[in-house]
Amino acid sequence: MYSAMTTGVILLVTFLVFIMLGYRFNRDTSSIEQGGLVQFASRPDNAKVTIGSAVLTDLTPSKITVNPGKYDVKMTRSGYRQWNKNVDIRAGEVLWLNYAQLVPDNVETKQLTKFDTIVDAKSSPNGDRFALLTDAAKPLITYVDVTGETPKVTTLTIPTNALPEGKTPTFSLGDWANDSDRMLINMTFDGVTQRLVVDRREPNRTINLSAKYEADISEAKFDPRSSERMIVRSSNGDLRTIDTASDALSSVLATGVTSMSVYGNDAILVVQTLPDNAQSVGYISFGSSEVRQIKRIDSTERTLVAAASYFSEPHVAIATGSKLDVYRLRSLPSSRSTDAISMTSLTSSVLPAAIDHLSVRSSGRFVVAQYASGVQTYDIELSKQTLTSFSVPVAEELRWLDKYHFYVTSGTDLQVMEFDGGNQQRITALTTRFDSVQSDNGEFIYSFNVHPDGGFAIQQSRMILK
User: Fold this and answer.
1) What predicted TM-score, i.e. pTM, was given to this entire model?
2) Beta strands 94-101 and 36-43: pairing type?
């Protein structure tokens, strides 16, 4: 009896372990196969899920183990447009379909605050506000906070001690810092452009980087570790850092730099020209003054580099002309180190045109290579690349609402689509090309459009029905 009980327990545990590992009986092949786990989530939730011909009993968020294969997945909810995806489910793997954005059948859009003029608008990294320039010839920045039911508008005047005496400059908006407090402002006069750092909370802390450090700055980026630190590149390609807290300008870290980007909190990625009609892709670890080469490019075509860590593994994307290469690195040692750098090629492709913008997004999952009439996204998790064509050429870098959705303005409307171009949806009429943002809870998308009585207005498009 004890032997039988022990054997029964062992068999039951073994059976449960196999069930937990996703093994199921496949009626089509009359065999036991390991399936794949699919996790579903939608915004808003409580959507009905259909995978293949099977309708799940549970509404989103939900999950199910499915036999390997290709399936059509649908998510539906009354009052919303249907969401569709073709997926490939692999044995023993988890597929996350947790980014479904359901769009109302009829998106209600209403105009809110009106502005007589707007020449530029930039959304903050966390999407809680916009910075506006209403007149390029005035040192005024307007902030629009969209975290509440109605937008809150405040105005900041750039201190006169940051402005040139006896000049009438024009202004344009640069990048925000990650903390959404400080921002780069470009100020141009007499054919010269100076870079200002403006703090929306403490305007008196505004710094004219170009004047204070007597630096020729053609490009500037915030150090991701602190908005008090800047990475700057001169017109001749010299790379330096500025620490505004300690009032320090570094020595030249690299020369001949044609493009730069940042790898998390670890390093500055650079592309440098070489004297033999070639280029070098390398990096400088933060705190170091040495450049370490990752790859030599035997071409003079424009080269871009971007990198991010995905599940603790560095991934580097390099674009030269229309060619894109993506590598996985075992690690990225300090640029001072002599440890070997192990690089594994994940994909190499040639796009229809020269790549204008390159980035690695969504916590390192997606490599986004954009050209004038389209974008190619390489999904590192699924080892899958997709090519999306735009109906109207897009010159500026793609703007994203969240980790999975970007948007484009065609000149007549605002269109939202997923990272792979799927589920393209028209949200509202839109003739401007200013930034848009989506509220944290996904309830609204805010954008700017012309006002019927002239000027512009911020408008609110409801994405979740009451």
Assistant:
1) 0.90
2) parallel
